[in-house]
Design a protein that fits this description.
It is built from ten helices and 14 strands. With about 280 residues, the protein is α/β, with parallel strands linked by helices. A hairpin with a 5-residue loop joins strand 13 and strand 14. Helix 8 packs parallel to helix 9 and helix 9 packs parallel to helix 10. The longest helix is centred in the middle third of the chain and has 19 residues. This is DUF1009 domain-containing protein.
Length: about 280
């Protein structure tokens, strides 16, 4: 391989894309950085706008790991990122694994997010395709610290945040989810496979009103994939159940459409706060 050919290929970066706007934002940022972008898009998940912005696009079905590897190698991709969401309940009904995907699936003891994604990443890296952090080029999207809205949390709400934080940490440690819904220091809902928005709606209805949503990273969170994310849709779910607070771990999750989200929160009187946990366990808001 000539030096010029190698330099052209090194400019390429792959995206294994799920749903949502994160893949599109990454494509735009990567191209501004001078990278050519090769997208592996998932049928039924990836936004078509992502494919329109990319340099190369290949559609696959969920579970076609061997095809992903083959396509990347054919395109000269040696680096990739995992971006966007995959509807978790699809793993029980819409997976069409090829031989490599099926072989890997049968080797995974725990069919949970981290175990699945780490196994896929390990397989890609053994094939010479390095998996990079999903925040590459987009670190400005990390959730900021402090109160982002006009309203600040009350003493009662701070108490609920602290209570919810401990519970959210624990379900994260068990790789169940990253979010809890609480009221008056009682757990209304724990996020599981249904995802954050559904957990908010379920817990918010039980709380009746004033639900406090706490979302944190998992212990040992791998920035290569599955970072917590919030945005306008999250805020809308909380507004629908007359919730009062969205507390998110700062610097460890993504925030989309910040200005619009905060504007909507202020209209609804919802508190949005980025929380930092110190080494001694104390929370700073």
């Amino acid at each position: 391989m000539s030096r010029m050919t190698q330099e052209v290929e090194n400019r390429k970066i792959g995206i294994i894309a799920g749903g949502g706007q994160f893949p599109l934002l990454f494509v735009e940022a990567a191209r501004k950085a001078g990278r050519q972008v090769v997208v592996i898009a998932h049928k039924g998940e990836t936004d078509k706008r992502v494919t329109e912005a990319a340099d190369e696009v290949y559609w696959v079905k969920l579970g076609q790991l061997g095809r992903v590897i083959s396509l990347f190698k054919k395109s000269g991709v040696a680096e990739t990122v995992f971006l966007g969401t995959i509807t978790k309940t699809r793993i029980f009904r819409d997976v069409f694994p090829d031989l490599k995907g099926l072989t890997l699936w049968n080797k995974i003891d725990r069919k949970q997010d981290d175990a699945i994604l780490r196994a896929i990443a390990d397989t890609l890296e053994r094939e010479g395709i390095k998996v990079l952090e999903s925040t590459l080029y987009l670190s400005h999207l990390l959730f900021p610290a402090g109160v982002l809205t006009k309203n600040k949390p009350s003493k009662k709400q701070i108490k609920d945040i602290e209570f919810g934080w401990k519970n959210a940490r624990e379900i994260g440690r068990l790789d169940i989810g990253q979010c809890v819904v609480v009221r008056d220091c009682s757990v209304m809902a724990v996020e599981a496979i249904e995802g954050t928005d559904e957990a908010i709606l379920r817990g918010g209805r039980l709380a009746k009103e004033n639900a406090v949503v706490v979302k944190v990273r998992k212990p040992g969170q791998d920035f290569r994939f599955d970072l917590p994310a919030t945005g306008v849709r999250t805020l809308e779910s909380l507004r629908r159940v007359h919730g009062s607070v969205l507390a998110v771990e700062a610097g460890q999750s993504l925030l989309f459409d910040r200005e619009k989200m905060i504007e909507e929160a202020d209209k609804s009187g919802i508190v949005v706060v980025g929380v930092v946990e110190q080494e001694d366990g104390k929370l700073i808001m």
